[in-house]
Amino acid sequence: MAIEFDWVDAFADRAFGGNGCAVLHGGADLPDTTCMNVVRETSLVECTYTGPSDIADMRVRYFLASREIPFAGHPTIATVAAMRHRGLIADGALTLETLAGVIPVSVKGDHVSMVQVAPDFGTMVPKDIVAAAVGLEPGDIVAEPQIVSTGLAFCITVLKSRDALERAALNAEGLAQYFRYVNAPGTDMMEPFLVVQDGATSAADTYSRLLLAPPSPPEDPFTGSATGAMASYLWANGLIDSPRFVAEQGHGMGRPGQADVEVLGPRDQIEGVRVSGKGYVLMSGQMHL
Q: Per-domain residue ranges for the chain?
């Protein structure tokens, strides 16, 4: 069967920036194994598959090379940008059915804004556990890391310096210990999300990295879901003065990405996180599956 697809660079306004995602239009009913094989074939971190929904304007499924996940940020930007590019939707508001709930989205041209669900603040993780997983020392970590989810769970880890961020490298033994510590049965947990409170450029306020274990690529160029979780952590813990800021990621990979972020609600009662960015449609065509 032939399925139409678009390859979109999300959180970027030009080719080869931000994070790429292949959007397979009408592919939501494909078997899980096929969906994962497409991700492996593209060598991307994630791909999305759309279909009709009874509770929203569109259903979206998100896949890594290893499994389906409930939600992902840059693929949401990519999916909406691809639908807008094809004329399947008009400028304005729409809703997406995901395994993490119904996500409100708005689009205007190549600019997409999504409101991630209210954060779920989970367990605190000892600094030494996280540090060992990413090849750093406990002293490189500023505050106690914590599991936070706005649709997908990450261990938000604030580092004290850009040097520490650039030195980080996954350690297989340490990562295995980290997953043993944080993984409750049935929990879809990701690798630690590392952030410093200083932009990669003067235009931003934070700069982040997400190092990934196989079969995913070694690093994620831009992680929209983790950006929402990170924003919630910083705001709730009084580490930022304003709920609005600019986040950057991917510059060290030669794939610069940027998002406008706004935490919605007071520090002790966050209602959601608005994460906005652009999507650049790099290629379009058919996959024969």
A: 2-115+278-288, 120-276
Which residue do the tokens 């929990």 mark?
Answer: 187
Task: Count CB-CB contacts under 10 A for residue 142.
Answer: 17
End-to-end C-alpha distance for the chain, whole angstroms: 5
Strand residue runs (E) in 228-271: 244-249, 257-264
Tell me whether residue 1 is exposed, middle or buried, using C-beta atoms within 10 angstroms of its C-beta: 0 to 12, 13 to 18, 19 or more: exposed
Considering the domain 120-276 in this protein, what is its CATH number? 3.10.310.10
What single letter denotes the amino acid at residue 184?
A
Report the distance separating Cα 161 and Cα 42, nearest Å.
Answer: 34
Q: How distant, in Å, are the alpha carbons of 42, 278, 281 from that of 259?
A: 24, 8, 17
Instruction: Answer whether residue 160 shows pLDDT above 90.
Output: yes
Query: Is the domain defined by 2-115+278-288 classed in CATH 3.40.50.2000?
Result: no
Same fold, 2-115+278-288 and 120-276: yes
pLDDT in tens, 64-119: 999 999 999 999 999 999 999 999 999 999 999 999 999 999 999 999 999 999 99
